[in-house]
Amino acid sequence: MFRALESAIVNSTSNLITKALAPLGQTSRSMSKLKSHSGAKKRFMPTANGNYKRWQVGLRHLNSGFSAERTNRLSRTVFVDKTQKRMLRKALPYSCSK
């Protein structure tokens, strides 16, 4: 009788401690986090309004024949289009809240 009562007290105490340590109503066994795509993290920067910025391609090498106007245009950053934005929301799940 005494051992059953003692084990019931220990179980209820451990349940209270586990529930107290769980954040805001979540259980101690929560789902795992999503992983961000490491290549996308290095290439795309999220903006405050939910868009992503990226660099232009074609400026690294073989550009000695380009005009100055073209090299200046390629050196700027641009925003991604709608289809890339949809892909980046899955690749970078924690980057933007929008």
TrEMBL record:
Q: Which residues form a coiled coil?
A: none
User: Which keywords has UniProt assigned to this entry?
Assistant: Ribonucleoprotein, Ribosomal protein
The Basic residues compositionally biased stretches are 32-44
Please give the residue ranges the record annotates as the region Disordered: 27-46
**Keyword presence, Membrane:** no
Give the family this protein belongs to, as stated in its UniProt record: Belongs to the bacterial ribosomal protein bL35 family.
The record, for HAMAP family, names: Ribosomal_bL35
The protein's name is 50S ribosomal protein L35
